[in-house]
Write a structure and sequence with these properties.
CATH superfamily: YVTN repeat-like/Quinoprotein amine dehydrogenase
Shape: globular
Distance between the termini: 33 Å
CATH topology: Methylamine Dehydrogenase, Chain H
Structural class: mainly beta
CATH class: Mainly Beta
Radius of gyration: 17 Å
Number of strands: 18
Strand order of the largest sheet: 4-5-6-7
CATH architecture: 7 Propeller
Length: 218
């Protein structure tokens, strides 16, 4: 996890048993928050995690035990004062692939014109594919909610074959090999969700503040 040490006024990284100074330790001017944990994704085996560098907008693949960066994924977009959106990303169970969703908008109309899904091989930082997701156009506020509130709702299935995304009440199952949406559950009453380790159950918090379990058919 990346966090801001207010005493030292430095960015720090931790695995909760040790901590060290982040390679770009200065807190960026645009960052109005102290914690950066929501720009974070861990592999299911807990050996690696992906974290966004708020200075460079690069995504670092970090070894959990040593806290050393093993690979850096190049910036997926440029951050300016008018675009306070973060990419949504998920690390595969073994840490070998990183899926990134980036939203692009028209600066004149401030309408989102595309949501792009990119899959990257983390062993060599090579892009495997990049496709546009079939979402409708959304306004500024909708995208802000998508990028900042939906990070925990974007993840690989344990076998790595699918990506699961909860977006604006709809649950999407995406083929991780080509980025194609293979199934959609419309108007799912969920705020947050998590997959079981075997991928057979989805647990989610409903709109009615209870926890529900749904079975996932192969």
């Amino acid at each position: 996890m990346l966090y801001h040490d207010t005493g030292k006024d430095k960015l720090m990284i931790t695995n909760f048993s040790q901590k060290k100074e982040w390679p770009n330790p200065q807190k960026p001017d645009w960052a109005w928050y102290e914690m950066y944990y929501f720009f974070y994704s861990a592999s299911a085996d807990q050996n690696y995690f992906a974290i966004l560098d708020p200075q460079t907008m690069e995504i670092h693949i970090v070894d959990t035990n040593s806290l050393e960066t093993k690979k850096i994924i190049s910036p997926v977009f440029e951050l300016t004062a008018e675009t306070p959106f973060m990419p949504v990303f998920a690390l595969s169970a073994d840490g070998s692939r990183l899926a990134i969703i980036t939203s692009f908008y028209d600066t004149a109309t401030r309408e989102v014109i595309a949501h792009k899904l990119t899959l990257t091989d983390t062993t060599n930082a090579n892009e495997l594919y990049s496709v546009d997701l079939p979402f409708e156009k959304y306004g500024y506020g909708d995208v802000e909610a998508f990028t900042e509130e939906s990070l925990s709702n974007f993840q690989f299935t344990p076998d790595g074959k699918l990506l699961v995304l909860l977006f604006k009440g709809d649950l999407y199952f995406i083929n991780s090999e080509n980025g194609a949406v293979v199934h959609t559950i419309v108007d799912m009453p969920a705020n947050n969700l998590v997959l079981s380790p075997d991928g057979k159950l989805i647990a989610f918090e409903s709109y009615f503040s209870d926890i529900r379990l749904w079975g996932v058919q192969p």
